[in-house]
Amino acid sequence: xxxxxxxxxxxxxxxxxxxxxxxxxxxxxxxxxxxxxxxxxxxxxxxxxxxxxxxxxxxxxxxxxxxxxxxxxxxxxxxxxxxxxxxxxxxxxxxxxxxxxxxxxxxxxxxxxxxxxxxxxxxxxxxxxxxxxxxxxxxxxxxxxxxxxxxxxxxxxxxxxxxxxxxxxxxxxxxxxxxxxxxxxxxxxxxxxxxxxxxxxxxxxxxxxxxxxxxxxxxxxxxxxxxxxxxxxxxxxxxxxxxxxxxxxxxxxxxxxxxxxxxxxxxxxxxxxxxxxxxxxxxxxxxxxxxxxxxxxxxxxxxxxxxxxxxxxxxxxxxxxxxxxxxxxxxxxxxxxxxxxxxxxxxxxxxxxxxxxxxxxxxxxxxxxxxxxxxxxxxxxxxxxxxxxxxxxxxxxxxxxxxxxxxxxxxxxxxxxxxxxxxxxxxxxxxxxxxxxxxxxxxxxxxxxxxxxxxxxxxxxxxxxxxxxxxxxxxxxxxxxxxxxxxxxxxxxxxxxxxxxxxxxxxxxxxxxxxxxxx
Amino acid sequence: xxxxxxxxxxxxxxxxxxxxxxxxxxxxxxxxxxxxxxxxxxxxxxxxxxxxxxxxxxxxxxxxxxxxxxxxxxxxxxxxxxxxxxxxxxxxxxxxxxxxxxxxxxxxxxxxxxxxxxxxxxxxxxxxxxxxxxxxxxxxxxxxxxxxxxxxxxxxxxxxxxxxxxxxxxxxxxxxxxxxxxxxxxxxxxxxxxxxxxxxxxxxxxxxxxxxxxxxxxxxxxxxxxxxxxxxxxxxxxxxxxxxxxxxxxxxxxxxxxxxxxxxxxxxxxxxxxxxxxxxxxxxxxxxxxxxxxxxxxxxxxxxxxxxxxxxxxxxxxxxxxxxxxxxxxxxxxxxxxxxxxxxxxxxxxxxxxxxxxxxxxxxxxxxxxxxxxxxxxxxxxxxxxxxxxxxxxxxxxxxxxxxxxxxxxxxxxxxxxxxxxxxxxxxxxxxxxxxxxxxxxxxxxxxxxxxxxxxxxxxxxxxxxxxxxxxxxxxxxxxxxxxxxxxxxxxxxxxxxxxxxxxxx
Lengths: 519, 506
Description:
Radius of gyration of chain A: 24 Å
Radius of gyration of chain B: 23 Å
Transmembrane segments (chain A): 12-32, 136-156, 200-221, 353-370, 421-441, 453-475, 481-504
Distance between the termini of chain B: 25 Å
Main location (chain A): endoplasmic reticulum
Organism (chain A): Cyprinus carpio (Common carp)
Largest sheet of chain B: none
Pfam families (chain A): Alg6_Alg8
Keywords (chain A): Endoplasmic reticulum, Glycosyltransferase, Membrane, Transferase, Transmembrane, Transmembrane helix
Oligomer: heterodimer
Number of helices of chain A: 22
C-alpha cells in the first residue's frame, strides 16, 4: 500500500525510472570504453578547431568524420561545453587523449543527451491503449517505459561501449510518436533531422516514404489536390533541410561527404559476424568446404586460405558457395522488404501498420545488408517494444528477438571486468521482459512454445561454454574466433526465426487488428 | 509480477551497483611503500599460504608484523588462506612470499573484487532477503522495496567494493545471527554470531545485545531447569564454535595470547586519524591525548561506554523482544563507536547494519542516519579516489528511500516515535509540530553535508589548518551521531504498549 501511494495518481514512476537508470549510467562512467570514445573525441576536436569546410577532409586521426553534417554540428555544439572540462581534448593532434575530465565530459554528454530519449518514451507511452485500474507494475505504459529506458542494448552500447544511440533513438521514437498522434508533419520533419544525424536510419526510410506517400498523397477516399499538396509540403520540407545543410558547405563537397558516409570498401561481414543471413551463409560455406575436403571432393590447396581463419579477416572469401557482392546484398535487402512495403501500400492499417513495416525494414536490412554491425539490431528491437506491449504475438516475437539480439551484443564487451556487469544487466532486462509480458498477456497460456523456450535457454550453456569453459581449453590459442562464430550463428537462427514470424504476423494478423479498431 | 522476479530484479540491481563501484580505485592504489587495506588483504593471503599456522600472528623472520601483520581473528586468516589457494591457481605471483609485496595488476584487482562479490552473494545478500521477508511488515512489494534499499546502502558498498574490505562477511554473519534469534533458533543464531565475532573482533560491538537478549530469554523461561538448560546449550554452542575456530592455536598457550594481543592493540592510543566519535571531536577543543595519561583515557572511555550501554542493555534484559533487540543493537554499537577506545571510521558500518533493520519502521531517521554514516567516511573515500561513486550512490540511495519507502510521508509524530520529545515540549510549547521540525532538520542537515562534501573536494584548506575539512566532517557527523544515540535510546526506552495498539489498528 505504501508503494502504491505515490505512484497511482501521477507520473512520478516515470521520473523514478528515468532517474534510476541515469544513476546507473553515472556509475558506469569509469567502465571500459571502446575506440568509439576516441572517435567522438576526435570529432569534438576537429569540429572545434577547424572551419566547417574542412571537417570532411581532415584525416589526422584514422577515425575520420563519417556521420552526416548535423551530427557534426552537434559535436560542434558539445565542444563549446567541453572547453570547461579539459581544453586538451579539443586538440586534433592529441590522439587517444583520455584524461579523467575528458571521460567525465564525454560520458556525461551521452547521459544528458538521453533526455531526448526520455521525452520520446514519454510521448510514446501517451499513444498506448491504456487499461486503467491495474496495479502499476502491470500497466502497459510502465512496462514499455522499462523496456525502452532500461534497454540492455542501449545501456551497454551507449554507456559502456560508447555511442550516442540513446539520443538518436529518442529522435526516431519521437517521430514515431508524432505519427501515432496524427502529427505527421512533425513526424516527417523529425525523421529528416534523424537522417541528417546518422545515415544508418536510411534502412527504415522506405517505410517512411511509402507510408507518407500512401496516407497523404494517394488516399483512396479523396484523391484530390489537397492531399497531393500535403505530400508536397512534406517532400519540400525534406528537400529544404537537405539544402540547408549542404549550403553550409562549400560547393563540391558533397562527393567527399558521401564517400565518407558510405565506405563500400569494407567486407561483407564485420570482424565479428552480425547474427544475420550472411553468418549462416558463411558457416554453410565453411561446413561444405570441410565436408568437401573430407570426402575428397575438393582440393585443400585450391581453397582460399583466409576461409579457415574465419571471423578475424575482414574480406571473407567463400570457398564453395558463390561470393556475395554489395549489389547482391542490396537486391536481397530490397526483395526482403518489398512485400511489407506492398502490404502497407494496399492496407495501411494506421500508424501501427507503419510501425510494423518499419521494424521489418530495419530487420530486413539487418538480415541482408552489406557490412552490418551487430549494434544495428537495436533499430528493430526498440520500435518493436512499442508493439510488444499491445499484442500477444508481437510480445512473443519481441522476446525472441530481444533476447537473441541482445545476447549477440555480448562480444562487444570482451573485457573480463565488464563480464559480470553485462551478465547482470542482461538477466535484469530478460527477467523483467519475460515476467512483465507474461503477466500482461496472462490469458491464453504461455507466450513461448517449448521449442522457442528451449532455444532461448540454450543461450545459457552457450554463454558458459564461450566465456568460461572455452578460454580454459587448448583450442583458445589455435581457434580464438570459434566462440564468436558460435555465438553469431546461434543468434542468427533466432533472429531469422523472429524475422519470419514478424512477416507472418504482418501478412495474416491485420484483419484482427482491424476488428479491434472498428470496435 | 511474481515475487521471485521482483526479488531477482532487486538483487541484480544491487549486484550491478556493487560491481560498477568496483571499477573504481581501491585504498592505497599505487602508493608504495605501505599501500592500503587492499594490500593488507593480499598480504594476508601471502602470509597464510606460505607460513605455518603458528607463525601467522608472530613476528618472525618470514613474517614482518610491521608490514600489515595479521590483526584479525582466525576466521579471517582462514578466509585469506582459501582465497590464496584460488589465487595460487590463477597466478602464483599473487601470493609469492616477499616477491608479491605491493603486487598490483588489473587482473589481480578483478580477482580481489570477485572474492568480495562471491562472499557477498553467499552470506550478506541472502541474509538481507530473508530478514526482509520474515520480519518486515507490509505487502510483499514493500518488503522487496525495503530489501532493495538495504542492499543499496552506500556505506557498505563503498567500503567493500571501493576501499576494499570484507565487511559483508562479518556483518552478514551477524545478520544471520539476528535472523536465527528472531526465528527462535537460538543455537543457530549464536553459532552464526560467534562466527562473525571470530571473523572480525569489531563484532564485539554487537555482542552485548546478543548476550542480553539470550539471557533475558532464558530468565523468562524461568530460572529453573528449562531456562538453565537452554542457557547451557547456548553457551556450549558458543564455546564449541570458539574452540573449533581457535583449534590450531590452542596447542601452545603463548599462541592465543599473542593473537589476542594482535587483536586488541591497546598501545595504539585513544583514536587514530579523524573519526566522528567523541574523543576525536573533543580533541578540537581539548587535547585529551596529551593531557590525560593512557590509563585515565582507558578508564574514561570504558566508563562512558558503559554508561551509555547500560540502560538499553537492562531494558533488553527485562524485555527480550526482536524490536528491543534491534534497537539495543543500534544503541550499543553506537555507544561503542562514540566512546570506546581505538575506533576506526569504518566501524560506523557496525551501527549501520542494525539501523538498516529498522528501515521499514522508521524510514526517515534510518535514511538520515545511513546517509550521515556514509558522509562520515568522506575523508577516507576521497583519499581512495571514490568521489564519483560516493556522490552517485548517496544520491540514488536518498532518492530510492524517499520514493520507494515514502520516508517523508511516513513521518507523523507517531511514526517517528517522538514520545519523550513530545512530553518535554508539551509543557512549554504545546503547539510545536515536531514532525515538521524533524523534516526541516533532515533537509537542513543534508544540505550541510552536501555543502561540506563540496568544499572538501573543491576548496583548498588554509595552509595553517591542512586538516580543516576532515575535522569539520567528523565534528559534523559526531554531532549527528550524538543526536541519533539520544533519539534511538529514547525510542527503545520509551517504547510503551504502543506497538500493540498499533497492530490492532492495522
